[in-house]
Amino acid sequence: MKLVFATNNQHKLRELQQILGNSIQLLSLTDIGCTDEVPENQETLEGNATEKAFYIYNKFGYNCFADDTGLEIEALNGAPGVYSARYAGPEKLASDNMARVLREMEEINSRKARFRTVISLVIDGHEKQFEGIVDGEILREARGTAGFGYDPIFRPDRFAESFAEMDAEAKNKISHRGRAVEKLVDYLKSFS
């Protein structure tokens, strides 16, 4: 099955292709000739995933899926949440986003957080959503160089390493995106 993954984020694309293996041929926005800035104007992860998936489906006619992911920190009332990618500004720099979180968490001892991914799959105009969550905590400093985004400051529960200290295979087994994609793949198997 061919599916468009509605993202321009090469890190996400690589990570997802690793998780999916050979069962599904993933097409990027570049592969379908989409150079548009895909809209993300909603106030929730669910809303953004839906908006992106239907944008591609309606404009380009491809079955596709889109995801939105947020880091939700309990002590910050769920922030950065839906604004995770641009938490420190429109430049969307991971280093600035992490620095802001660490600054805001400096005096806070309760460091509970979770990553949450919502995937919206649109096939023949019908939508189904899948969610993946991984609980953990915000570290006091960045650790590791793998991964992307907030990975260096997030340590999943029951692990000693941050996401950025894990290899891709280990992270994908337990990550929020991995869990959501697993549900997506199980669902897609019903089509084959």
Offer a concise description of the structure.
The protein has 192 residues and is α/β, with parallel strands linked by helices. It contains five helices and seven strands.
Give an overview in words:
With 192 residues, this protein is α/β, with parallel strands linked by helices. The chain is built from 5 helices and 7 strands. The chain has one domain (2-191): Maf protein (Alpha-Beta Complex). Strands 1, 2, 3, 4, 5, 6 and 7 form a 7-stranded mixed sheet that branches.
Averaging pLDDT over every residue, what do you get? 92
Secondary structural class: alpha/beta
Can you tell me the CATH architecture? Alpha-Beta Complex
Any idea what the shape is?
Answer: globular
For the termini, the CA-CA separation is 8 Å
Number of domain units? 1
Proportion in helices: 25-40%
Radius of gyration, Cα only, in angstroms?
A: 16 Å
How many helices? 5
Defining traits:
alpha/beta, Maf protein, globular, seven-stranded mixed sheet
Write the SSE topology.
Elements lengths: L1 E4 L4 H11 L4 E3 L17 H16 L3 E10 L6 E2 L12 H12 L6 E12 L2 E13 L15 E3 L11 H7 L1 H13 L4
Parallel strand pairs: 1-2, 1-3
Antiparallel strand pairs: 3-4, 3-5, 5-6, 6-7
Helix pairs in contact: 4-5
